[in-house]
Write a structure and sequence with these properties.
The chain is of the alpha/beta class. About 50% of the residues lie in helices and about 20% in strands. Helix 6 links the parallel strand 5 and strand 6. Helix 1 packs across helix 2 and helix 3 runs parallel beside helix 5. The longest helix is centred in the first third of the chain and has 36 residues. The protein binds ligand C2E and magnesium ion (3 copies). The site of one magnesium ion has 4 residues, from strand 6.
């Protein structure tokens, strides 16, 4: 009987695998069309400073609205694009679009803070990555302080020295660097002292249970304290409630992002949001 069940499980497993494989092939083909027609959009989520409540940054988040399949999450299609190499043209589009839209805001006289772009490991490892950042800034006449990049610990996985050297060059350019999803990777903490970074972003998974799980609270407070001792800025991701915000504030977190403050929004809504913010801040 056990044998039969085993076989059944195997059957399930292969069916599931086949389905996922076919889905991936389909998505890859659809991605290709979307890249060729630039069927993507950037949404922007504000970063809020704790003490002043001011918007001190924006994060660009990639959005893909498929004509038949509807909204597809970047968490689904970015890994596929990384496997197929499609991430290269796609991330070039993201970098340029983020710069162009920020340039447009500034040209329209809208007070806009810096924009952070999420950088895929595949993109980061390319030989001309730093050059592509420099070119995008030049093309849209932006200062390096206008741009921030968010990388994950994964970029350090193989060839750590090369990665650090690249970060150094970005730092020399004047671009701010954040470690995204901090605390979820498996790399050693000792790398932190070697990195020319400015900010760590505490992963949403810790923030979620911060008021109900003392372990998440302890990890979060540990990250904040350690980061501050290393003179790094700390951003909390995924803040959804006032209680979470209060707890983080009491723990001396510097900046916040999350639905409690603002959801990611399309460019037109962002314009209005920034103008409303500017009006609110007038005496
Ligand atoms: P991430 O960089 O850690 O971005 C934060 C994610 O959390 C975003 O999901 C954002 O919409 C979501 N979020 C923000 N506040 C809240 C909140 O209060 N509650 C909840 N439940 N979620 C919140 P999104 O936009 O679906 O992006 C998922 C991931 O996909 C990103 O994680 C990033 O790793 C990747 N990604 C997004 N855009 C790009 C891109 O342009 N390039 C690359 N390479 N990756 C991207
Ligand atoms: Mg990010
Ligand atoms: Mg993150
Ligand atoms: Mg995250």
């Amino acid at each position: 009987k056990a044998k039969q069940e085993g076989r059944n499980n195997y059957q399930w497993y292969t069916n599931d695998l086949n389905l996922r494989l076919r889905e991936r092939v389909h998505l890859r083909n659809e991605l290709q069309k979307a890249i060729e027609t630039e069927a993507f959009e950037l949404y922007f989520q504000p970063k809020i400073e704790g003490c002043s409540g001011q918007v001190i940054g924006l994060e660009a988040l990639l959005r893909w609205q498929h004509p038949q399949m509807g909204f597809i999450s970047p968490a689904t299609f970015v890994p596929i694009a990384e496997d197929t190499g499609q991430i290269i043209p796609l991330s070039q589009w993201v970098l340029e679009t983020a710069c162009r839209q920020l340039r447009d805001l500034l040209q329209q006289g809208i007070a806009a803070p810096s924009v952070a772009v999420n950088i895929s490991t595949v993109q980061f490892r390319r030989i001309n990555f730093v050059k592509s950042v420099q070119s995008a800034l030049q093309k849209y006449q932006l200062k390096s302080e206008h741009l921030e990049i968010e990388i994950t610990e994964n970029v350090l996985f193989d060839n750590t020295e090369k990665a650090i050297e690249k970060l150094q060059r970005l730092k020399e350019l004047g671009v701010n660097i954040s470690i995204d999803d901090f605390g979820t990777g498996f790399s050693s903490l000792s790398y932190l002292k070697e990195l020319p970074i400015d900010t760590v972003k505490i992963d949403r998974s810790f923030v979620q249970e911060i008021n109900t799980d003392s372990r998440d609270a302890a990890i979060t407070q540990g990250i904040i304290s350690m980061a501050h001792h290393l003179r790094l800025n700390v951003v909390a991701e995924g803040v959804e409630t006032e209680q979470q915000f209060k707890f983080l504030q009491q723990s001396n977190c510097d900046q916040y992002q999350g639905y409690y403050f603002a959801k990611p929004m399309p460019f037109e809504a962002l314009k209005q949001y920034l103008m409303d913010e500017a009006a609110r801040e007038l005496p």
